[in-house]
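Just curious: can you write whichever protein you like plus the matching C-alpha cells?

***
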Amino acid sequence: MKVIAPVQKTDSSTYKELKIADLKTDIESLDGIEVSVAGRWYMLSEDFVMPEERGSVDMIYVNISKLPREERLTINRSCGGGCVVSVKGTVGKIRNGFGIYAGHIEVQ
C-alpha cells in the first residue's frame, strides 16, 4: 500500500469505518463525523467520486483540496483513470449534498 497523505491525529481519535452503502444511507446524519471508507474512485472535475459499484451513478464525493499540493498531484497522476483507495476524512457539505473532505488516503 502506498500512503498518499499523512494523518496528523492524536492517538485518541478514531474513524468510524463504513461501507459505501452505509455511508450513502446515513451521510446527512454523519455531518462533521470522521469516517473511513474503501473502494474504487474516479476523478470528476476537482473532486473524486466513489460509486457503490462499477457503473453506478449514485456516488460519494471526495474532496482532496485540504491535502498538500504534492499529495494532490500524486493522486491526480496515479488515479485519474480510477484506482482502489482507502479514504479517511470528515463528512461535510460538498456541492449540493454531502461527501468526505479527505485527510488521509491510501492507494491500494
